[in-house]
Amino acid sequence: MSVRFLADEDFNRAIVNGLLRLAPETDIVRVQDVGLRTLDDPTILAWAAREGA
C-alpha cells in the first residue's frame, strides 16, 4: 500500500516541487488541483478520508 498526501492550499509549492524532484513516485494531491481550495477543513478532511489521501 502506498502513501498518498494531500497538500493544503497554503503549503509551499516549492516544497512540493522539491519533494517530487527527489522522490517522483510520491503521490501528492493539492487541494486546489481537485477543486477543494475554498472549502472548510472538515470538508477537505472528509474528501481525503474518502480518497485515501
Explain this structure to me?
The chain has 53 residues and is an alpha+beta fold. It has one domain (4-51). The protein is built from 2 helices and 2 strands, in the order βαβα. Strands 1-2 form a two-stranded parallel sheet. α1 (13-22) links the parallel β1 (4-7) and β2. The longest helix is centred in the last third of the chain and has 11 residues, at 41-51.
Would you summarize the structure shown here?
This protein is α+β, with helices and mostly antiparallel strands and 53 residues long. Helix content is 40%, strand content 15%.
How would you summarize the topology of this molecule?
Layout: E1 4-7, H1 13-22, E2 27-30, H2 41-51
Parallel strand pairs: 1-2
